[in-house]
Write a structure and sequence with these properties.
308 residues, alpha/beta, TIM Barrel, eight-stranded parallel barrel, four-stranded antiparallel β-sheet, 35% helix, binds flavin mononucleotide, FMN, Dihydroorotate_DH_1_2, Aldolase_TIM, flavoprotein, cytoplasm
Length: 308
């Protein structure tokens, strides 16, 4: 009997696939739809302190092997999102990861505090969105001190609850291993990696960047090796669980992440490339591989790329 379940910081997932934040997950219905298509857990689009319309179109470009987006964290703001999260909890059978972002360190605490009444199991701190400004003019995750401060503050807010705090990082931080240690020492229960990476496309006929925001974040198959490297590096450094993502389209991609050390895997752009049932497809491809290679559990495969 093959066991596809995983234990993510004490929370059981029936399979290791998770809907990444920002794709589909804007309402209870869309999150439910992803659950019905086989995801082991789902992440809501990042929630901020107030409503944001995001950037003007065009905001998303899709190519054969990559997407580039600058959606700009559009969301209706935490006061409205509280109701969406409550409804999602009522309708979902799989765990919901509640992703949050803010423009200041203090506002992370404000958003987390307002969400307490929804009893989230996991709050994911999006410290790594490349498309928005904050009080420092750069991503929080590019500064170890800011990263530590956000985690410490949010942990204070969630003290006395069993909410797990995951921190979403960017591989653009030079000393990624050191950042991982900072995150773990600050008390985070897990790490999500990677977010999209800074990028740009230029239309050579109109002679200007294509995205209205000029800069965007690249995702999809082209970034998979970067995601794998970041999981591999963190696995050598920290003992908290890692959700690995970036470019996963197939079961083989997911297994690569697991062998690098991921406890679970996120799928975002893959929904565009393989359809909404990518979660079922990836899970059954993982199972086929395990059968063929004689693995009985996901746990047996985790981190084994480090053994050679
Ligand atoms: C259109 C789009 C919107 C995104 N929005 C968010 C977001 O709101 N919060 C977040 O943490 N990550 C966001 N991401 C990043 C994804 O969650 C993921 O980290 C990244 O796309 C890499 O995974 P992938 O290659 O499977 O897409 C977004 C990605 C895309 C493509």
């Amino acid at each position: 009997m093959i066991d596809l379940s995983v234990n993510l910081a004490g929370i059981k997932l029936k399979n290791p696939t998770i809907l990444a934040s920002g794709i589909m997950g804007v309402s209870a219905s869309s999150l439910k739809f992803v659950e019905e298509n086989g995801a082991g857990a789902v992440t809501i689009k990042s929630i901020g302190p107030t409503d944001r319309t995001g950037h003007k179109n065009p905001t998303v470009l899709a190519f054969d092997n990559r997407m580039v987006n600058a959606v700009g964290l559009s969301n209706p703001g935490v006061d409205t999102e509280v109701h969406i999260v409550k409804e999602a909890h009522e309708r979902l059978n799989v765990p919901l990861i509640v992703s949050i972002f803010a423009d200041t360190i203090d506002n992370f605490a404000v958003v987390a505090d307002k969400l307490l009444e929804t009893h989230p199991k996991i709050i994911e701190l999006n410290l790594s969105c490349p498309n928005t400004d904050n009080e420092f003019g750069k991503m929080f995750a590019l500064d170890a001190d800011d990263t530590r401060k956000v985690i410490t503050l949010v942990k204070k807010v969630t003290q006395g609850t069993d909410i797990k705090i995951f921190t979403k990082l960017t591989p653009e931080e030079e000393d990624f291993a050191e950042l991982g240690k900072v995150v773990e020492d600050a008390g985070a229960d897990g790490i999500t990696t990677i977010n999209t990476i800074f990028s740009m496309n230029i239309d050579i006929y109109s002679r200007k960047p294509i995205l209205s925001n000029a800069y965007g974040g690249i995702s999809g198959p082209a970034i998979k090796p970067v995601g794998i490297e970041s999981v591999y590096t963190l696995y050598e450094t920290v003992s908290i669980p890692i959700i690995g993502m970036g470019g996963i389209l197939t079961g083989e991609d997911a297994i690569e992440y697991i062998m690098a050390g991921a406890t679970a895997v996120g799928i975002g752009s893959g929904v565009y490339y393989r359809g909404i049932d990518i979660f079922q497809k990836v899970t059954s491809e993982i199972e086929d591989f395990m059968k063929k290679e004689g693995y009985k559990s996901i746990e047996e495969m985790r981190g084994i790329a480090h053994n050679s």
